[in-house]
Amino acid sequence: MKRLFYLLPLVIFLIIVGYFTVALRPGHDIHELPSAMIEKPAPDFDLAALGESKTLALGKLKGHPFVINFFASWCVPCRIEHPLLMRLAEQNHLPLYGIAYKDKPDDSSRLLATFGDPYRRVGVDRDGHVGLDFGVYGVPETYVIDRAGTIRKRFVGPLTAETVDHELLPLLKQLGQT
């Protein structure tokens, strides 16, 4: 029995080494959170549009590839990625739609009035149900959806210029957007 007690640290050490061997293998991105929604239909939604009488609905967006960005005024990383979204909107690279996630409409409007509005339209997901349906882990999160309404890619955290240039824009080009 004592021998078993002395072997326990060795067994725990081997389990930890095995875990890191798998997690840190080449080609495995430790920052990427897996999503069960990839290659599945985007959840249907019909949200009130921010500051408009219209709505933001999945059914009206289908027919061409587009990008949905979940954001909130209280989200610091959202503010970090905002200048990049503005640049992309000015260059008209993205069919970009926003969803204000668990945010007060007045706060979302104030954020966009202060820093600029890169979105073609913004839906209000005040209670977070649409975000939950998408599997949003935290804001910002960005989803690429193809013309049939299938989620093709998920970006967790703020987008970077490198991510946009090497992943997002090539994927949109492949899907026939740019």
Helix content: 40-55%
Write down the overall geometry: elongated
Radius of gyration: 20 Å
What is the count of helical runs?
6
Which stretches are low in confidence, meaning pLDDT under 50 for 5 or more residues running? none
Helix and strand sequence: HEEHEHEHEHEEH
For the largest sheet, list the strands in their spatial order. Answer: 5-4-3-6-7
Helix/strand/pairing class, anyone? Answer: alpha/beta
How large a portion of the residues is in β-strands, by DSSP E? Answer: 15-25%
The end-to-end span amounts to 67 Å
Overall pLDDT: 88
Number of strands: 7
Largest sheet, in brief, is:
5 strands, mixed
Summarize the topology:
Blueprint lengths: L1 H22 L22 E3 L6 E3 H4 L4 E6 L4 H15 L5 E6 L3 H11 L6 E4 L3 H6 L6 E5 L5 E6 L4 H14 L4
Describe the fold and architecture.
This protein is of the alpha/beta class. The protein is built from six helices and seven strands, in the order αββαβαβαβαββα. Strand 4, helix 4 (105-115) and strand 5 form a beta-alpha-beta unit. It starts with a helix and ends with a helix.
Label this structure with key terms:
single chain; alpha/beta; five-stranded mixed sheet; 40% helix; elongated
